[in-house]
Amino acid sequence: MTKSVNLYLALCVNDGNGFWVVNFTEEEDIFNSLGSKLLECYRKELFGLEGAIEVKEAINTTLDIISYDLKLDQYKLENSDTGYSSEIPINIIEDIFDLWAFNYSNQILWKKYIGLLKFRKKVKTNNYYIHMGLKGETYEFSLKLDKLIGFRSTNSSLRFKKSNDLMW
Fold first, then answer.
1. What's the CA gap between 69 and 84, in Å, rounded?
2. How many CA atoms within 13 Å lie on the side-chain side of 161?
3. Which of 32, 51, 115, 147 is the most buried (most CB within 10 A)?
4. What's this model's pTM, rounded to 2 decimal places?
């Protein structure tokens, strides 16, 4: 039997910069795991160690895709070496956490969902042709995942200014 750990989503701060972190700890009180850096815990789920590692990797991969796509679309995000930009809204982060934590229980579908995530990471853009070959629960999951990955802020101050000046 594997040991149980708490997988959590928390808002942390380091040198005045806020960032999201997804991690796991054996401690019941997760505030002890990151010391004074942790401000608030938004999600906490009990998993086996192997499950926590897999779910954390899926969540972080999804957040990596979002961060990369936002940079491609000329959004400026505060970077952190230990987490993800706090400019990504809490509802998006929570939905990603919930999506992966909930779907871990069915290992047959989990493998399909991880395959979709890996494929989406390689494609780099939202391609609706992907959905044409899917059906049932996999199709529904793919739509949810693309909706979360397709998040774009309506705050125009987060975008770099694009210059429309002529080159000559």
1. 13
2. 3
3. 51
4. 0.84
Q: Quick one: what percent of the chain has pLDDT higher than 70?
A: 82
Buried b (16+ CB within 10 A) or exposed e, 74-96: ebebeebeebbbbbbeeebbebb
Tens of pLDDT, residue by residue over 30-40, are: 777 666 678 88
CA 3 to chain centre: 25
166: its two tokens: 């002529």
Q: Which helix (H) or strand (E) holds 62?
A: helix 49-72
Lowest mean pLDDT among 51-60, 107-116, 117-126: 117-126
Q: Angle at CA 132, nearest 5°, toward 126 and 137?
A: 90
| CA gap 11, 24 in Å, rounded | 14
Structure tokens at 45: 């789920």
The pLDDT value recorded for residue 80 is 67
Q: Report the helix count and the strand count for the chain, using DSSP H and E.
A: 5, 4
Please return the burial class of 164, using the count of CB atoms within 10 Å of its CB with bins 0-12, 13-18 and 19+. exposed
